[in-house]
Automatic annotation (TrEMBL):
InterPro entries: CHP02096, NTF2-like_dom_sf, SnoaL-like. SUPFAM superfamilies: NTF2-like (SSF54427). It comes from the Bacteria. Transmembrane segments: none annotated. This is Nuclear transport factor 2 family protein. Pfam families: SnoaL_2.
Length: 145
């Protein structure tokens, strides 16, 4: 898949994320998607991605800004850097209690693209920065760099 088509695929995926359109996101991933999330276990398969999206939609409302997207020449790999703006809606197991706290954290995702679909998504962010923010601490890392 040429780089231009892959760029369109990832742009569409990120736009669907911002719209909260998990059905659209799911339509863009391979059946055997490999999904690695920060501080979490690897999930393999579209069904596990669906479960993850259900969980995330219940606990968080997020949107991405300042997106910078990189795609390699043959369109098989991509990387996106962005800022996550979120609201913590419902307490997520093992994390601080939720009461509508807002947060802003820099993050990045890496993508593998195969046969016109996203075959792998790996996402990273600073979990301690997020915890400090939802606990009411200063936003030292995300705001001062």
């Amino acid at each position: 898949m040429p780089g231009k088509q892959s760029r369109f695929l990832i742009d569409t995926y990120l736009a669907a994320f911002n719209a909260g359109d998990t059905k659209k996101m799911e339509s863009l991933v391979a059946e055997d998607l490999v999904h690695d999330v920060n501080q979490g276990r690897r999930r393999v398969g579209k069904d596990k991605f669906w479960s993850f999206n259900v969980h995330m939609s219940r606990c968080y409302k997020e949107r991405l800004s300042d997106i910078v997207l990189f795609v390699n020449e043959d369109g098989t790999r991509a990387a996106a850097e962005y800022v996550v703006h979120g609201t913590y809606l419902t307490t997520d197991e093992g994390l601080p209690p939720a009461n509508g706290q807002t947060y802003k954290v820099p993050a990045g995702s890496f993508f593998e693209i195969r046969d016109g679909k996203i075959a792998r998504i790996t996402t990273y962010y600073n979990l301690q920065d997020w915890i400090d923010q939802v606990n009411g601490g200063a936003q030292a890392v995300s705001e001062s760099g």
